[in-house]
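Researcher: Going back to the complex we discussed earlier. I've cleaned up the inputs and rechecked each line, so this should be the final set. Can you rerun the prediction on the complete assembly and write out the structure?
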Amino acid sequence: MFDIDVWQEIFATIRKNKLRTFLTGFSVAWGIFMLMILLGSGNGLQNGVRTQFASNSVNMMWLWAGETSMPYQGLKEGRSVKFNNADYTFLKGMNQDLEQVSSRFYLPGNIVYTYKNEYGTFETSSCHPSLKLMGNMKVTSGRFINDLDINDYRKVIVIGDNVRLALFKDVDPLGEYINLNNVPFKVVGVIHDKGRRNDDERTSYIPISTAQRIFNGADRVHTFAVTTKMVTTVEEADSITADVRKAMALRHNFDPKDKRAMGSFNLLAMYIRTMKIFQAIKIFVWIIGIGTLIAGIVGVSNIMLILVKERTREIGIRKAIGATPGSVIGLVLLESILITTVAGYIGLLFGIGLMEAVNYGLEQAIGSGEGERIFFRNPTVDFTTAITAMVILIVSGALAGYLPARKAANVKPIEALRND
Amino acid sequence: MIQIRDLHKSYEMGHNSLHVLKGLHLDIEEGEFVSIMGSSGSGKSTLLNILGILDDYDRGTYYLGGKLIQGLNETKAALTRNEMIGFIFQSFNLISFKNAMENVALPLYYQKISRKKRNQIALEYLDRLGLKEWAHHLPSELSGGQKQRVAIARALISQPRIILADEPTGALDSATSLEVMEILKEINDQGKTVILVTHEHDIAAMTKKIIKLKDGVIEEVIKNGELLAFKNRVSTE
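Model: Rerun complete. Updated structure for the full complex:
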């Protein structure tokens, strides 16, 4: 079936019908090309959005205190909710739902940093050591805040890379002291927060216990950043949020449904929802792509039918001199598979080529720093998808050829050879 | 060689059934040179198709070389055709995009003989028919007589037991017709059974036996010795 004669016969008929073969092949190539473009774009959008999420762990959740907006158990609305260190201990204890907990106390007003003759105003945040585990923070030199810093109320600071550039220039900042509103802090580390936008490297971190003590915070906490257990469904993520809200509502006497009393945001729920949308988009893309492909295949099938009709006489001759139905079917089927596979492969190459070119352009833009906010990254199709598309092509080529091949096999030599 | 008993064949034409062969008896021995004659509608094409296993029949028996040919599936029929029968057609029926040699070699392709070997055999046969230098020409570059000779070579290459020729001279002028008949006669002289269908009396007269069909049965069988009488009768008609 796969010897050189079969191929010679197929190429002879293709040569005889160049334009028709081209047009047929084109419809298949176009179908695959569109499928690749659509899939690539879908992937690009998904990768882009995933990159945006990547500035934090996707399973992060934030809680912030507010003011009640609903009366609860005889208490009026308008009370302000205040978090404290006990809440931190409590949240840390909820370990079936939560993994890491860090609390934050906002420093009042603008903090002026001074080092020798240099000074500037920078954003300062207070935290627990676990904050490092939640984001994509990278300590480029020294270390991050640790438990000893918290317990001993150490006056230490981890500065952002921009702060280092502004104050220290070429001097190694580790071990140096900078003054925050005239309180000296020892620099123990420099961080580079790669997931975030450039301005966030202006943020520096001090231990929350130190912040509360120096800036008159008592045991007040403004926000919590936590990571939740990794779950896969929106329902599970939402139920974690609900559990945390319920527990906190009980501790602070507010209605769990009162969104203004305690704000909460569960990134994981949003992440899962977003990824679900992309899954839906992907299914949609496949449906459209396969639809386009079917149009192409119907075209191939149609052409092959005409071809069989035109070749009725030839098939009749072949059968008269001993061609078995199997060999006739093989001839038509192989031609159909050949046209769809070759044309499809060309479409595949063009589609992948275009997406790679777009990707190259995007990489250039991202590399030059313009691409930070591009919601479109790596719009390429992976190897498995390409292989899947290829298999679909071969199968569809066989399908397209099947009907005409059956028709060819049923050609009656008598009718085909009737003198007309 | 061929033994046909009480052969019936009818075609469905919409709601009507057309009874073409009505209980035909026919015996053809090995090495005979037979022509089948008859007006259109007499059933001669139908008989030829059944003889060539291109069509099935309804009732009766057909033995070809001692083998009952009945209800064969397509694959078996194709193999039997390939092995037993060589076809020659009025319109030559060469494959237009294959050259003379490839056309001749085609039956051997279906016998799964290697390309090199079958092309070599095809060249031998073309040589025997005086067409060696035309081996690499396409059918469109050949004359009618040459095309028919290529077709004869193709019919012979699988070394069949019988040659079936359907109006082999129908598309040729009289000189070329004569030439083709000479070739068929030679083939017959070498011991092959040759059966041809024709409606031309002078062509039929060149064979050794004439079977006249009328309305689905054999009307008359004219044997060798009576051919002269047949010729005279035809010329007076």
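Model: Worth noting: Residues 267-310 of chain A form the longest helix (44 residues).
Researcher: Good, that matches what I expected from the previous run.
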